[in-house]
Recover the amino acids of this structure.
C-alpha cells in the first residue's frame, strides 16, 4: 500500500478503536457490602432502590477510618471519598432503540436480540462530607455514544471525548454554583435531572432506558490509593494522541495495518535450516549472559539473537509465540544481559567527564543565583533501556519483582559467585533493591522496578536518590554502593579484560566451527576422490577393452597382409613367363586379379599405420589412467588419514569437539528433522560451560561500569533530582515534554528494566514523544487488545512481543454485534471485527520470522516446556499445540511418585455430583464442600499454606463460582479458628477464574468446574476453545484434580480426547 492509502486506513482503524472504547458498557463495580473489623462484619458500601430512605454510608467510612488509624494503617489505606453510581439499565433495550432510530438491518445485526447485561449512566464523586470532589460527575461514554446515535438517527456520528469532558464540566459547574451536596440517594436525582436536561432527554423510555434491577444507585468507598474514575478509558487518550502524531512512526503504521498486509513472504524460522544457522552464528549471540546454570534452548536462542539484532531484519517489531512453561522469562533475561553489555560499551565511549552530554536550562525553575538544568541522554545510550508492558498486572509484577530476587542468583544456581548476596554485600545497588523489594538481602541488585501507577513511580524515584546533608543516618541511597564498589577506571579495565576473554573464546568457537567445516570439506573431498577413483577404474576397464580390440584389429591386419602378400608371391612364382608379363602389365584376367590383390594389400598396409597409431594411443591412455589411479589411491590414502585425524578431533574422546560442546554440538546430524528432534530442540548450539561463564562475568563487569558511571558522573544524579521534582508537579507543560524522555532514560540507566501495565502507560509516560524511549517488551500479549499497545509502540524504537494466542484471550466486554456496527460505520476491513484479535496476532502478522504449531502460523515459536509434569503437559500439548512441545521439566519422573508430599497423590478426576445455584450462577455447594475437605488435609501437608501463594490454586472457569468459593472457604476455615484476614488475602491470590492466573503457577491446582446438567450452555462455553483448559492445566506444576460431575463433562469437546488417555477417577 502507498503511504497515503496507509494513512487513510490507519485513521479508519483508529476511529474504529476509539468507538470501541466509547461503546464499552460500564457495569457497577464490585461493592464491599460488609467489611471486617476484628471478628465483626460491619455494613459498608451499599445499593439503593428508588424507594430507599437510608443516607449514603459516609459515616460508616469515617468510622472505619478511625478503626484503621487505631491499627496504625498508613494514610494511603484510609477512605477519603466515594463514588455514587446512578442508573442500572438494560443494554439490550438501549441498543434496540439505537437500531430502531438508525434503521439498522435487524437481520444483519440479529445478535442485538441476544444482548444481555446492564450499565449505569453516570457517577458522581464526593468526599466524606458529601461535597463534590474535583473529579465530580463523570458521564458514561457508552451512554453518551449510543445516545448520540439515537439523537442523530444514524451510526456515522463523530463522537469526541472533548464533548464528554465539556458535558462533565458544565454539570459540575452547575452543581458547584448551587452548592449541591450528595448525602442521600434523592440528591443523586438532582444530578440526573441536570444531565438529562443538558442532553435533552425528556423521558427514559424515549431513548430506550429500561431498568435492569431495583439497585438503581450504588455507593462505593475509595481509598487514597484507589483509581479515581471508573469511566476513564485507559486507551482513548492514547489512541487520540497517537492519531495526531503517528505519521512519522513506521513501526506504528505497520502494526496498525498489519491485518491488511496480505500474504507477505515469511522466513519459517523453526524449519528453515539455512536461516537457523545464520541466526546461530557466533557473533549473533549476546556478548553477556544472564546468570544461570541453564542455557536457553534452540528456539529461545534463535529468538534472543533476532531480538537483539539491529541488522538483517526488515521489521523492528519481532514476535515470539510462547506456550506455557516455554521460558519467556529466560528470553527477557538474555535480552537484558545483551543490552547491559552493549550499554556499558557506549558509556565507556562517552565517559564521565567532558562535553559529551548536552545540558538544558529549565527556565521556570532558574533565577539569577541558580540555574536548574538537566542533561540530554543521547539516543545511542537511551536505545538500550527496556520497558516491559502487559495488560496483566500479575505478569508485570511477576517479572519486575522476581528478577531482583536473590534466591535465584546464589552460586549453586549460577556459573559464578558474583551475584550471591550471601557472599557479596553489594552487587548492583543491592541495598536500594532490598528497599524496593521490602526485604533485607532479598534482592541481588537493582535490575528491575515496577512503574506505571503514581505510587509505584514515587516509590522508585524516592529510592533512587543520592544522599543529602540532612538525611537520616539509616536512609538507603544509591551512594551506599560506593563503599563496596570499584572506581570508573577499574570498572573499565575489568570490563575490557572480561570482554577480551569472551572474544577469545568466540574465536575459539569459530576455529572449532572451521575445524568441523574442514572435516566435512575433507570428508566431501574424500568422497569425491573415491568417486573419481571409481570413475577412473571404469575408464581403465573401458580402455583395456578398447586396447584389446585395437590389438586384435592390428593382429588381424598383419595376418591378412601376410596372407595376401603370400598369395601374390605364390601366383608370381608359379606363373609362366607370359602370365608374369600379364601380371606386370596388369592386363588380362590374371593381371587384373593380382593387381586387385596388390591394391588390397596396399590398403591393408595403410590401415596398419592407422591401427598402430590407435594402438599406441590406447596404450598411452591406459598407462595414463593407471598413473592417475595410482595417484588417486595416494590421494585417498592421504585424505583418509586427514579425515581420520579430523574425525578424532571432532568426534573422538577427551579433546574432541563433541566432548567439548556435548549436546550443544551442532553438526549436520543436529539439524536432521529439526522440528521433531527433541535433543536438538533442547540444545543451545556452540555454547559450553567456560564460554557461558565468561559471558556471565562480562555481564557482571558491565553492571559495574554502569554503576561507576552513575556514581561518578554528574549526569544521572542531576536528572534523577529533576525527575523527582517533575513527579511532584514542578515545571511547565512545555518543559515537561522536553525533559521527560531524558529523565526517564536516565532512570533506565540506573534500572535496566522498568515495567508498567498498558493502562498506566498513557499517564506515566504522557510526556514521552515519538520513539523517544528504548526497547519495548510486551508480555502476555495474547491477552492484550490490539489498541492497548499503541501508546507503548509509539514511544519506543523497537519491540519484542511475547505471548500465546492459545492461552487467555483479550477480555472484550463490548458486545460482538456492536463491534460489527462500529466497524461498518468506520468502513474498516472485516479482519478488524474479530473479537479475538490481540496485540500478539497483530505482531505475528508483521513479524518476518514465523513458525508452525499444528496448522497455525505464529511468530517465532518456543517449544521446550519446563514447568509441568504429566498429565498436565500432555493435556496441554494435545488440545492446544498439536503435540509440538517437548517436556524437559526437571525431575519430572521423580515428582510423579505418590510418596511426594503433595495433597493430590496422583492427578485425576474427583467426581462430585450436585446441583448448581442456577440463574447463571454455576456454583455447586457439594464441590465447594469437597474442596474444603481437601484443604483440611492440605494445611497439614503445607503448614504455611494460607500464608503462601504458590502451593495450591483453586481455579474455575466461572466468576460466580470463584466468588462463592472464596466466601465458602473463608466461612469454612474461619469457623475452625483461622484468621479471616489471612484467609481473605489467600483466597484473593489463590482462588479465581482462569483469566486471573495466566503467568502464574503453583504446586497443585484444584480445577473446580461448577455447573450441573441444567447448564449445558455454560459447559459448552468452557470447551468452545481449548484456551481455558490449556491455561488451567498448565498452572499446575505437579498435580491437578478436576472437581465436578464427570458424567456432565466426559463427552464434551477436549475432555473426551484427554480423559481416556490421561485421567482416572481418584479419591485424592
Amino acid at each position: 500500500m502507498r503511504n497515503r492509502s496507509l494513512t487513510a486506513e490507519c485513521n479508519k482503524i483508529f476511529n474504529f478503536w476509539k468507538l470501541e472504547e466509547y461503546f464499552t458498557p460500564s457495569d457497577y463495580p464490585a461493592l464491599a457490602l460488609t467489611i471486617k473489623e476484628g471478628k465483626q462484619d460491619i455494613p459498608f458500601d451499599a445499593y439503593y432502590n428508588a424507594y430507599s430512605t437510608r443516607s449514603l454510608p459516609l459515616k460508616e467510612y469515617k468510622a472505619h477510618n478511625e478503626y484503621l488509624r487505631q491499627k496504625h494503617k498508613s494514610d494511603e489505606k484510609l477512605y477519603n471519598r466515594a463514588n455514587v453510581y446512578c442508573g442500572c439499565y438494560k443494554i439490550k433495550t438501549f441498543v434496540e432503540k439505537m437500531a430502531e432510530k438508525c434503521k439498522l438491518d435487524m437481520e444483519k445485526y440479529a445478535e442485538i436480540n441476544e444482548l444481555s447485561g446492564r450499565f449505569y449512566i453516570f457517577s458522581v464523586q464526593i468526599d466524606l462530607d458529601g461535597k463534590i470532589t474535583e473529579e465530580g460527575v463523570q458521564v458514561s461514554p457508552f451512554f453518551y455514544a449510543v445516545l448520540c446515535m439515537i439523537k442523530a438517527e444514524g451510526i456515522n456520528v463523530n463522537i469526541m471525548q472533548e464533548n464528554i469532558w465539556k458535558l462533565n464540566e458544565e454539570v459540575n459547574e452547575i452543581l458547584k454554583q448551587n452548592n449541591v451536596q450528595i448525602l442521600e440517594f434523592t440528591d443523586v436525582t438532582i444530578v440526573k435531572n441536570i444531565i438529562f436536561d443538558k442532553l435533552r432527554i425528556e423521558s427514559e423510555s424515549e431513548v430506550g432506558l429500561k431498568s435492569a434491577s431495583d439497585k438503581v444507585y450504588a455507593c462505593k468507598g475509595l481509598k487514597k490509593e484507589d483509581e479515581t474514575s471508573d469511566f476513564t478509558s485507559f486507551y482513548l487518550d492514547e489512541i487520540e494522541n497517537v492519531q495526531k502524531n503517528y505519521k512519522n512512526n513506521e513501526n506504528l503504521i505497520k502494526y496498525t495495518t498489519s491485518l491488511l498486509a496480505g500474504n507477505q513472504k515469511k522466513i519459517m524460522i523453526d524449519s528453515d535450516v539455512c536461516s537457523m544457522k545464520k541466526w546461530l552464528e557466533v557473533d549473533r549471540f549476546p556478548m553477556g549472559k544472564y546468570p544461570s546454570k541453564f542455557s536457553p534452548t534452540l528456539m529461545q536462542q534463535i529468538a534472543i539473537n533476532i531480538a537483539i539484532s539491529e541488522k538483517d531484519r526488515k521489521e523492528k517489531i519481532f514476535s515470539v509465540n510462547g506456550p506455557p512453561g516455554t521460558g519467556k522469562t529466560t528470553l527477557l533475561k538474555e535480552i537484558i544481559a545483551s543490552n547491559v553489555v552493549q550499554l556499558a560499551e557506549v558509556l565507556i565511549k562517552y565517559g564521565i567527564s567532558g562535553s559529551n552530554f548536552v545540558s538544558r536550562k529549565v527556565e521556570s525553575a532558574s533565577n539569577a543565583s541558580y540555574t536548574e538544568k538537566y542533561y540530554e541522554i543521547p539516543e545511542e545510550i537511551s536505545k538500550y533501556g527496556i520497558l516491559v508492558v502487559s495488560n496483566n498486572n500479575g505478569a508485570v509484577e511477576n517479572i519486575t519483582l522476581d528478577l531482583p530476587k536473590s534466591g535465584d542468583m546464589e552460586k549453586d544456581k549460577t556459573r559464578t559467585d558474583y551475584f550471591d548476596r550471601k557472599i557479596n554485600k553489594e552487587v548492583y545497588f543491592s541495598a536500594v533493591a532490598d528497599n524496593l523489594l521490602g526485604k533485607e538481602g532479598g534482592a541481588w541488585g537493582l535490575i528491575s522496578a515496577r512503574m506505571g501507577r503514581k505510587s509505584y513511580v514515587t516509590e522508585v524515584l524516592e529510592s533512587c536518590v543520592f544522599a543529602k546533608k540532612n538525611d537520616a543516618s539509616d536512609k538507603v541511597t544509591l551512594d551506599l554502593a560506593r563503599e563496596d564498589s570499584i572506581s570508573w577506571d577499574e570498572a573499565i579495565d575489568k570490563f575490557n579484560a572480561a570482554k577480551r576473554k569472551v572474544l577469545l573464546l568466540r574465536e575459539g568457537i569459530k576455529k572449532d566451527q572451521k575445524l568441523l567445516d574442514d572435516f566435512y570439506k575433507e570428508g566431501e573431498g574424500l568422497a569425491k576422490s573415491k568417486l573419481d577413483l571409481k570413475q577412473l577404474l571404469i575408464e581403465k576397464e573401458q580402455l583395456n577393452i578398447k586396447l584389446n580390440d585395437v590389438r586384435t584389429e592390428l593382429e588381424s591386419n598383419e595376418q591378412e597382409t601376410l596372407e595376401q602378400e603370400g598369395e601374390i608371391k605364390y601366383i608370381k612364382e608359379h606363373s609362366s613367363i607370359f602370365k608374369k608379363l600379364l601380371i606386370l602389365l596388369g592386363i588380362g584376367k590374371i593381371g587384373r586379379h593380382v593387381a586387385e590383390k596388390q591394391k588390397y594389400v596396399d590398403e591393408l598396409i595403410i590401415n596398419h599405420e592407422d591401427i598402430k597409431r590407435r594402438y599406441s594411443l590406447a596404450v598411452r591412455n591406459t598407462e595414463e589412467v593407471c598413473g592417475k589411479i595410482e595417484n588417486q589411491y595416494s590421494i585417498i590414502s592421504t585424505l583418509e588419514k586427514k579425515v581420520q585425524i579430523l574425525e578424532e578431533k571432532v568426534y573422538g574422546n577427551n579433546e574432541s569437539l563433541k566432548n567439548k560442546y556435548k549436546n550443544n554440538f551442532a553438526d549436520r546430524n543436529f539439524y536432521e528433522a529439526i522440528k521433531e528432534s527433541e535433543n536438538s530442540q533442547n540444545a543451545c548450539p556452540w555454547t559450553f560451560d567456560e564460554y557461558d561463564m565468561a559471558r556471565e562475568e562480562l555481564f557482571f563487569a558491565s553492571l559495574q561500569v554502569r554503576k561507576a558511571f552513575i556514581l561518578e558522573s554528574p549526569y544521572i544524579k542531576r536528572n534523577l533530582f529533576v525527575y523527582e521534582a517533575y513527579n511532584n508537579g514542578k515545571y511547565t507543560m512545555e518543559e515537561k515534554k522536553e525533559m521527560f524522555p531524558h529523565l526517564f532514560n536516565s532512570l533506565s540507566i540506573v534500572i535496566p528494566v522498568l515495567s508498567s501495565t498498558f493502562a498506566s502507560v498513557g499517564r506515566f509516560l504522557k510526556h514521552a514523544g515519538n520513539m523517544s524511549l528504548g526497547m519495548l517488551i510486551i508480555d502476555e500479549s495474547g491477552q492484550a487488545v490490539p489498541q492497548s499497545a499503541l501508546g507503548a509502540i509509539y514511544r519506543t524504537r523497537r519491540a519484542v512481543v511475547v505471548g500465546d494466542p492459545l492461552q487467555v484471550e483479550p477480555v472484550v466486554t463490548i458486545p460482538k454485534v456492536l463491534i460489527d456496527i462500529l466497524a461498518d460505520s468506520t468502513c474498516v476491513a472485516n479482519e478488524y471485527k474479530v473479537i479475538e484479535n490481540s496485540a500478539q496476532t497483530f505482531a505475528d502478522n508483521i513479524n518476518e520470522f514465523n513458525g508452525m504449531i499444528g496448522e497455525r502460523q505464529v511468530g517465532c515459536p518456543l517449544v521446550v516446556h519446563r514447568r509441568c509434569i504429566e498429565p498436565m503437559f500432555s493435556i496441554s500439548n494435545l488440545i492446544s499445540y498439536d503435540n509440538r512441545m517437548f517436556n524437559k521439566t526437571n525431575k519430572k519422573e521423580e515428582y510423579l511418585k505418590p510418596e511426594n508430599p503433595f495433597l493430590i497423590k496422583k492427578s485425576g478426576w474427583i467426581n462430585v455430583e450436585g446441583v448448581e445455584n442456577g440463574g447463571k450462577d454455576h456454583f455447586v455447594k457439594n464441590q465447594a464442600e469437597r474442596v474444603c475437605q481437601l484443604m483440611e488435609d492440605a494445611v497439614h501437608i503445607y503448614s504455611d499454606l494460607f500464608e503462601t501463594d504458590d502451593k495450591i490454586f483453586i481455579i474455575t472457569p466461572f466468576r460466580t463460582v470463584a466468588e462463592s468459593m472464596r466466601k465458602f472457604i473463608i466461612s469454612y476455615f474461619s469457623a475452625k479458628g483461622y484468621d479471616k484476614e489471612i484467609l481473605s488475602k489467600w483466597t484473593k491470590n489463590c482462588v479465581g477464574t482462569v483469566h486471573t492466573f495466566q503467568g502464574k503457577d503453583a504446586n497443585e491446582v484444584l480445577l473446580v468446574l461448577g455447573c450441573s446438567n441444567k447448564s449445558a450452555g455454560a459447559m459448552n462455553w468452557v470447551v468452545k476453545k481449548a484456551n481455558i483448559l490449556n491455561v488451567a492445566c498448565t498452572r499446575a506444576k505437579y498435580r491437578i484434580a478436576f472437581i465436578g460431575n464427570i458424567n456432565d463433562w466426559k463427552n464434551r469437546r477436549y475432555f473426551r480426547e484427554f480423559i481416556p488417555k490421561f485421567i482416572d477417577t481418584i479419591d485424592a
Notes: The two ends are 60 Å apart (CA to CA). DSSP finds 36 helices and 29 strands in the chain. The chain has a mean pLDDT of 92. The first helix runs from residue 3 to 22.
